Amino acid sequence: MSKWEPCPRCGSNRVKSTGMFMFVLLGICMISFGLWLLIFPIVGISMLFIGVLFLIVSPFTKNTLQCEDCKKSWKYPAGQSKPA
Ligand SMILES: [Zn+2]
Fold it and tell me: Which distant-in-sequence residues (6+ apart) come within 8 Å of 54 by Cβ?
């Protein structure tokens, strides 16, 4: 979990990864709530659907970082075409 870089906007080192784990967790929560809420089919089914969506997008959010100072979020590594 050491894959990070300083914030490209403000240069802060207080950067955290808002990656896959959070999305997987959210997806699982949504699905379990959705199962309970199936007594209200419209609510339950839409929650299940959203939960599955979270699980689907989670692998693509793996390297997303967020700055705790200015709240900017970006993909890591930022701009692969950028010359070192
Ligand atoms: Zn920042």
Answer: 23, 24, 26, 27, 30
> Distance from the CA of 17 to the center of ligand 1, in angstroms?
13
* Residue 53: other Cβ atoms inside 10 A: 14
- CA 84 to ligand 1 center in whole angstroms: 20
The model's pLDDT over 24-61, given as tens digits with 9 standing for 90+, comes to: 999 999 999 999 999 999 999 999 999 999 999 888 77
pLDDT score at 78: 59
The domain locations on the chain are: 15-75
Per-chain residues with Cβ under 5 A from ion ligand 1: 7, 9-10, 12, 67, 69-70, 72
